[in-house]
Amino acid sequence: MSDMGIRNSGMASNPASPTSDRVAAGASGTRPRRIGASWIAAAVLLVAACWAPFELAPFHTFQLSLAMVYAVALLGLNLLVGHTGQISLGHGAFFAVGAYTAAVMMDRWDTPYPLTLPVAAVVAFVLGIGLGIPALRLRGLYLALVTLAIAIFLVPLLKRFESVTGGSMGLTLDKPRPPAWSGLAEDQWLYFLALAVTVVSYLLVAGLLRSRVGRALHAVRDNEIAAEVTGVRPAFYKTLAFAWGAMFAGAAGCVYIWVIGYVSPDSFTLTLSITLLAGLVVGGLGGQWGPLLGGLFVMYVPSFAQDVNQAAPGVIFGLLIIAVMYLAPNGLAGLVGRAAHWLGFRVRKGRTHAH
C-alpha cells in the first residue's frame, strides 16, 4: 500500500471535517507541542531512572530491574494486541524461549552475555513467524485458544529435554559482573543493563509506529476489510506483528536471565502469560506509557497481594485488577493522562485569573 493510501483512507473531502480540523491543528503547532511535552516527560523519567539505583536499596533496585524487563515484554505484546488488534495468551512462551536461549548459550557454550541478547531476540522472532503464519486464519477467541495451548505445553516440553534445559531443576547461571571501570555494584550494573535495553526497545517501537508500517498495523486493527481494500496486506502485517511481539518478549527473557541468574520451567507457566496480558490492559492498551505502567503493575501488585493475604494472593490480585478497571477503564495510562490534562487546565485557569 502506498503511503498516501494509508494516510488518506477514511479522510473526508469536506474541508470542515473533523479530520481536516485535526490536520489544521497539527499545522498550527498543537501536535508539535504535544510531542514536545511527551519528550520532556520521557527525559525527566530517564533522569530519575538513572538516579534511582544510587538511592535505593539493592533489593528495590532489583525489583525495578525486573519491572523494566516486564515492560520490554509488554512492548511486544502491545504491538500485537494494542496496535494490531490480535489476542495472545501465550506471550510468556516467547519470554521463556528468550530466557532459555540465553541460559543455554551461557551455561553450555560459555557465550559472553552481550551476544545472547540478539540471538535470543532472533530465535523468538523466527518462532513468532513460524507460529504466526498458521494463526492467520484465526481471530478472536480461536486465536486466543491457540496461543493458550502454546503456553500450556511449553512447561512440560522444557522439562522433557533435561540434558539441555536442566529439566525441573533448571539452570543456575553467573550474573553479568560490572566492569572495573564502572565503579558500580552488581545490582546497579544489572539495573543499567535493563534500563539500556528498555530505552532502545522504546525507541525502536516508537520509530516503527511512526512509520508506514505502524499506520498499516493501525489500519488492520481498526478495520481489516477496509485496510485490505486500500492496499494493506493484513496477513503480512499480522504475521510481522506476531513476530515483533515475540522478538521483544525474547529480548526481555534474555535480560530476565541476566538479572535473576536462574531459569526453570516453573517460572514460565500459563500464569505468566495471563499476568502479562492483564498488566498490559491495566497499564493501557495502545499507549506509549501502557507497557511501562503495566510492567510496574506486574512486578509490584502480585507481591503486594502476597503480603496482604498469603493464603489467597490470587483473590487480592484479581480484586485489584477489577478496581483499577473500574476506576480507569482505559488503563492507568489513561488515568494519568486525564490527571495531567486536569492539572494543565487548572494551571491555565489560574494564569487567566491572575491576569
Can you put this structure into words, describing what you see?
This protein is mostly helical. The chain has a domain at 59-276. It contains 16 helices and two strands. The chain has a two-stranded antiparallel sheet. The longest helix is centred in the last third of the chain and has 27 residues, at 234-260. It is globular. It is found in: Cell membrane.
Helices, by number, come to 16
Shape: globular
Average pLDDT score: 81
List the helices and strands in order.
Answer: HHHHHHHHEHHHHEHHHH
Q: List low-confidence stretches.
A: 1-34
Q: Kindly state the percentage of residues in helix.
A: over 70%
User: Widest sheet: strand order?
Assistant: 1-2
How many DSSP-defined strands? 2
Sheet with the most strands, sense and barrel status: 2 strands, antiparallel
Beta-strand residue fraction? under 5%
Structural class: mainly alpha
Evaluate the radius of gyration.
22 Å
Q: How widely separated are the two ends? A: 52 Å
Region (Disordered): 1-27
Pfam families: BPD_transp_2 (PF02653)
Protein name: Branched-chain amino acid ABC transporter permease
Transmembrane segments: 35-54, 60-81, 88-106, 112-133, 140-158, 189-209, 240-260, 272-299, 311-328
Task: Record keyword descriptors for this entry.
355 residues, mainly alpha, two-stranded antiparallel sheet
Task: Provide a short characterization of the protein structure.
It is a multi-pass membrane protein. With 355 residues, this protein is mostly helical.
Detail the topology: elements first, then pairings:
Layout: H1 3-8, H2 18-27, H3 30-51, H4 58-82, H5 91-108, H6 113-132, H7 141-160, H8 162-165, E1 171-172, H9 186-210, H10 212-222, H11 224-229, H12 234-260, E2 262-263, H13 270-283, H14 290-308, H15 313-327, H16 331-354
Antiparallel strand pairs: 1-2
